[in-house]
Amino acid sequence: MSGFSTARLKMVDGQVRTNDVTDRRVLDAMLAVPREAFVPADRQALAYLDLDLDVSEGEAKRFLIKPQLTGKLLQAAEIGEGDNVLVVGCATGYLAALTAKLARQVTATECDSALAAKAKAALAALNLANVTCKAAACAEGDPSAAPYDVIILNGATEVTPEAVLGQLKEGGRLVGVSAESRPPRAMIVTHTHGEFGHRALFDAAAPVLPGLGRAAAFVF
């Protein structure tokens, strides 16, 4: 077993299972997808640590959110094999790759076009044919493949992402971290009878996605 394979097993057993992730499909996906394939070569040694991993190449900071939070959000999303899923702010594509193992079709967006290109290449190298990655602002989602059964934010939002919520199918759900108030919490938003219901799941912190931060207050 390679060093990365051993690290991946330790990540799942030591970080993910111990944080109440029991969904077999989620655990199997996290055991199958090589996280190091989505990390710049000079940072691959950090791929399986319990942290939000900076994979930025440009000025905007972009992250793979920590493994235990990734697993908990995927479990909360309850993705079915026939689902059409949107991953917002996918960075280099790790969360999109995991989601592709669970869903019928995945659309992933990333605001940094250079990272979106890296995500496309990494996903193609793993032969994940059911995921499409596009360069697009996080706040816009991707209306072309909407409506979605599930939408996952690869990070936190400090505002209500209205355009993204508008792409949620009736009966669908969005999961992510809401940092609109303190402490930040993982949330699930459900779309039922034209109404959106918000439910807090657990306390969680994650980097805020570009374009989903609250506007800075004007100071004299």
UniProtKB/TrEMBL annotation:
Superkingdom of origin organism: Bacteria
Name of the protein in its database record: Protein-L-isoaspartate O-methyltransferase
Protein family: Belongs to the methyltransferase superfamily. L-isoaspartyl/D-aspartyl protein methyltransferase family.
Alphabetical list of Pfam families matching this protein: PCMT
Organism from which the protein derives: Bradyrhizobium symbiodeficiens
Record's signal peptide: none
InterPro entries: PCMT (IPR000682), SAM-dependent_MTases_sf (IPR029063)
Classification via CDD domains: AdoMet_MTases
Gene3D superfamilies: Vaccinia Virus protein VP39
